[in-house]
C-alpha cells in the first residue's frame, strides 16, 4: 500500500470565533492529483492553505488537529515554515510574478538558498520553465520583465518558480480561473505531466477540469468534507445526495 504524503487528522480551523473547517481528515497520495470542489465559502481554500501553514500569516487563526507530512505534524512549534513552504509550494489564483525578469523570478528561491553555482541556476531555470511548459514562449525573453507576459504565461512562470526549488507537493488555488481556455488547457496538460514527480492538490470551481485531471476529488460543504473518493466515483456514482446535487448543478 502506498503511504500518503500528507495526512490531515480532524482539522478544525477558526477565524476568530467562526469555525470554517469542522474536522477534516484527508489523505493525499504521491503521484496523484487531488481536486477540492464545493460551493463558494465551503472551506476549500482554507484547507489548501492549512497544508503549508499559509493561514498562520493571520493572527486570529486557530487550528486544532494535525497535518502530518512524513508522519510529523507541521503545526508542531519546531516546524521551520520556510522549509515547509519549500517542500509544499503554492500557486495562487491570480498570477503573481515578482516585478523582475523571467529569469530572476525562477532563480529567486535558488539564489536565496546560496548553494548553487551560476551554471546550476541557469540549468535549473531552463528545466523548470520547460517542465512548466512555458520555455518556448520565454526562451528569447528571459531577461525581460515577467510582467510583460500574458496572464497564462505569467501563471506558468509562477509554476516554474515553485518547481525550481523542488517541492514534494504543489498546492494550486484555482490556478486557471483568470485564464482563457487555451492557457487553461496548457496548464491542465502540464499538471498531468508533473504528477509523475509531484503530489498535486488543486482547488477548482471547474467541474470539467476536476474530472479531466484529478485522480481523487473531495467535495466540501459548509466546512465539512462531505465525500472524498476516486474522481470517477464522485462524478459517476456519488454516495451522498449533496455531492450529486452539486455536481449536477442543482446548487452552488
Ligand atoms: N482571512 C479570512 N478571515 C476571516 N474569514 C475568512 C478568511 N478567509 C476565508 N474566510 C471565511 O472562511 C470561509 C471559507 O472560506 P474559503 O475561502 O476557504 O472558501 P472556499 O470554499 O475556498 O470559497 P471560494 O470558492 O469562494 O474561494 C468563508 O466563510 C470565508 O468568508
Note down, in words, how this protein is organized.
The longest helix has 14 residues, at 118-131. With 252 residues, the protein is an alpha/beta fold. The chain has 10 helices and 10 strands. The strands form 2 sheets. It has a 6-stranded mixed β-sheet, sandwiched between helices. The chain is 37% helix and 25% strand. Strand 4 (61-69) and strand 5 form a beta hairpin. It has a single domain, classed as Rossmann fold. Bound molecules: adenosine-5'-triphosphate.
Q: Give me the secondary-structure category.
A: alpha/beta
Order of helices and strands: EEEHEEHEHHHHEHEHEEHH
Number of helical regions: 10
Could you tell me the radius of gyration in angstroms?
A: 18 Å
Give start-end ranges of low-pLDDT stretches: none
Bound molecules: adenosine-5'-triphosphate
CATH level-two architecture: 3-Layer(aba) Sandwich
Number of strands: 10
Q: Approximately what portion of the residues adopt beta-strand conformation?
A: 25-35%
Whole-number count of domains: 1
Gross morphology is: globular
What is the assigned CATH homologous superfamily?
A: P-loop containing nucleotide triphosphate hydrolases
Amino acid at each position: 500500500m502506498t503511504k500518503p504524503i500528507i495526512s490531515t487528522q480532524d482539522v478544525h480551523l477558526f477565524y476568530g470565533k467562526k469555525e470554517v473547517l469542522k474536522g477534516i481528515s484527508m489523505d493525499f497520495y504521491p503521484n496523484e492529483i487531488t481536486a477540492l470542489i464545493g460551493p463558494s465559502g465551503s472551506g476549500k481554500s482554507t484547507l489548501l492553505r492549512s497544508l503549508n501553514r499559509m493561514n498562520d500569516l493571520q493572527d486570529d487563526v486557530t487550528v486544532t488537529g494535525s497535518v502530518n507530512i512524513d508522519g510529523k505534524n507541521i503545526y508542531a512549534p519546531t516546524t521551520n515554515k520556510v522549509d515547509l513552504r519549500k517542500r509544499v509550494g503554492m500557486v495562487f489564483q491570480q498570477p503573481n510574478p515578482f516585478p523582475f525578469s523571467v529569469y530572476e523570478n525562477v532563480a529567486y528561491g535558488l539564489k536565496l538558498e546560496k548553494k548553487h553555482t551560476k551554471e546550476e541556476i541557469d540549468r535549473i531555470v531552463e528545466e523548470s520553465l520547460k517542465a512548466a511548459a512555458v520555455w518556448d514562449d520565454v526562451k528569447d525573453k528571459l531577461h525581460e520583465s515577467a510582467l510583460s507576459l500574458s496572464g497564462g504565461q505569467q501563471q506558468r512562470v509562477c509554476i516554474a518558480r515553485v518547481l525550481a526549488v523542488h517541492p514534494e507537493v504543489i498546492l494550486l488555488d484555482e490556478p486557471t480561473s483568470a485564464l482563457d481556455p487555451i492557457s487553461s488547457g496548457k496548464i491542465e496538460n502540464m499538471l498531468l505531466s508533473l504528477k509523475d514527480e509531484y503530489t498535486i492538490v488543486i482547488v477548482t470551481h471547474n467541474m470539467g477540469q476536476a474530472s479531466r485531471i484529478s485522480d481523487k476529488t473531495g467535495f466540501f460543504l459548509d466546512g465539512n468534507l462531505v465525500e472524498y473518493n476516486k474522481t470517477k466515483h464522485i462524478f459517476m456514482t456519488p454516495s451522498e445526495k449533496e455531492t450529486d446535487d452539486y455536481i449536477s448543478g442543482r446548487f452552488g
